[in-house]
Amino acid sequence: xxxxxxxQLGSPRYFYRFSGRLIPWLAVPCAVLMxxxxxxxxxxxxxxxxxxxxxxxxxxxxxxAWMSLFIYMVxxxxxxxxxIWHMKLAEVIAISSAHIGASFTFLALITGSIWGxxxxxxxxxxxxxxxxxxxxxxxxLGVIALHNAIDDKRTAARATAILAIVGVVNIPIIHYxxxxxxxxxxxxxxxKFDAPSIDMRMLIPLLLMAVAFKLYYAVVxxxxxxxxxxxxxxxxxxxxxxxxxx
Amino acid sequence: MNEFFHxxxxxxxxxxxxxxxxxxxxLNVLVPMRNRRRLLAAxxxxxxxxxxx
Amino acid sequence: MHPKRKKRLYLILLMVVGIGIGIGLALNAFNDNLMFFxxxxxxxxxxxxxxxxxxxxxxxxxxxVKRQENGLTxxxxxxxxxxxxxxxxxxxxxxxxxxxxxxxxxxxxDDHGVFxxxxxxxxxxxxxxxxxxxxxLKTAHQEGVExxxxxxxxx
Lengths: 246, 53, 155
Description:
The structure holds three protein chains of three kinds.
Chain A lengths: L1 H9 L1 H33 L13 H28 L2 H32 L8 H22 L3 H15 L2 H11 L19 H33 L4 H9 L1
Helix pairs in contact in A: 2-8, 3-4, 3-6, 3-8, 4-5, 4-6, 4-8, 5-6, 5-7
Chain B lengths: L1 H5 L4 H42 L1
Chain C lengths: L2 H27 L1 H4 L5 H5 L9 E7 L5 E2 L5 E7 L4 E7 L11 E8 L5 E9 L7 H18 L7
Parallel strand pairs in C: 4-6
Antiparallel strand pairs in C: 1-3, 1-5, 2-3, 3-4, 5-6
């Protein structure tokens, strides 16, 4: 039963219909959670004892940074599935994820920079955390560029999957950089082993935003995947029928 | 209210972060929407032309 | 699993493990270069290279911050609770700079063992809490300390 559904989902036509119906069910909770997170983060949460109001940048910076790592894992995982099982849908998810992952990495870097200027006193330093996150951005951009450089979509998918999988090595480096080396960036707050060292009123908006960003990724990756599928299947009957019915 | 926008003197930093995030998140939604519309229109045009000839 | 697919899976795993080991060895070899700053102990022990600018990171000692006559040059001690380095810096300090705060200074040791910095960055910790909570924690800590001293009644 489940494996049949999985096979069905692998068919582009079924996936296109299914994802079209799924998107609103993800988009509405995403919007609600994001608005709640913004309200909690900007209005309800108290100022920080050291950083005052400036720490509120955290509510976009930290979820963006988490997403940049999470999406990379999804992209590399989808790439591995595409390499092993030659599943078209996985190829599409992988390349669609690359664009969104690059956006979140860019956001993490730029909001971190804007936070660093007033607090640390500099827009940028070459410490291990910041440098490895910048390498992540280049990995995403490399995947996108490589995909664009190869005309045949299936060859492109295989080449980018290998690049994405190789780049997975960078993920633990980013995560543990603040523990392995001394860096200007502080250590983990929420994911450390003992209880998170953050006030509950600050943790709630952070987690709300994190869940909202996950849902946002799900929505946008499906939207991009549907475009990519239409493009690949443009010569099939179901796509031309769909296009003409609009 | 004014105090809210002032952000304890960090208004520029806080609001520019949120503004950039908003722009990037919106673009990621709008670009695939526009692409899908264009793609479907192009496919429909081609299908109609193919039928005529 | 189909043997062909199994082979591809193993190839991918082999690739990740191989590259992981390679990168791990490289990072290990360049470990010193990846450190953003040296601790005061390392600087005092002469482990930090001299000649080119280095970074020193640690906590600003309580009561050590002194402004000079011109109002721009600041002297303070940076400590890692073992050794201390005196830093001299002329310029604007970041908002988070204060006694007890972590900082990273870039510069060189002069002949008198004073670290002349051309850049001072603040390093904040991973704790986030509202000011009331921070105050409460501080008083609780002080009360705990006072409570241990003989003759002081708990409030």
